[in-house]
Design goal:
Helix content is 26%, strand content 14%. It has 113 residues and is α+β, with helices and mostly antiparallel strands. It has one domain. The strands form three sheets. The chain has a two-stranded antiparallel sheet. A two-stranded antiparallel sheet has the order 2-3. The protein has a two-stranded antiparallel ribbon with strand order 4-5.
């Protein structure tokens, strides 16, 4: 189990890869504010889409700081990768490495549900 402390580290300088389902959902929801940040990589990359970062800050453009913690401004429809992070990375060692690579301050709790 992963306990997020909303440090915002996973939302900076990390390639966010939206799924086809994410993009279709945003189109259906009329979320042009999200779609304008999605780069269609086509055949250029391993993935079809890349979620662009704010060039000035390196952060996801939908990350907000409320003075204490970071919050996702599109939490209700955020990319699948973000919903599952870092648990989408596989086994315990990969999850830990993923967290360490971005300086994540969240807590892993093994053996708990």
């Amino acid at each position: 189990m992963f306990e997020c402390v909303q440090c915002g580290k996973c939302c900076k300088d990390l390639d966010i890869i939206p799924t086809d389902e994410d993009v279709r959902r945003w189109i259906k929801e009329g979320r042009n504010d999200i779609i304008e940040w999605v780069y269609d990589a086509g055949d250029d990359l391993l993935h079809d889409y890349i979620f662009l970062h704010d060039l000035e800050t390196g952060f996801c453009p939908f990350l907000l700081f409320n003075g204490t913690i970071y919050e996702c401004n599109i939490h209700e429809t955020k990319p699948e990768m973000c919903k599952n992070w870092p648990l989408s990375k596989g086994d315990k060692d990969n999850i830990k490495l993923c967290m360490e690579s971005v300086g994540c301050l969240g807590k892993l709790k093994y053996g708990e549900s």
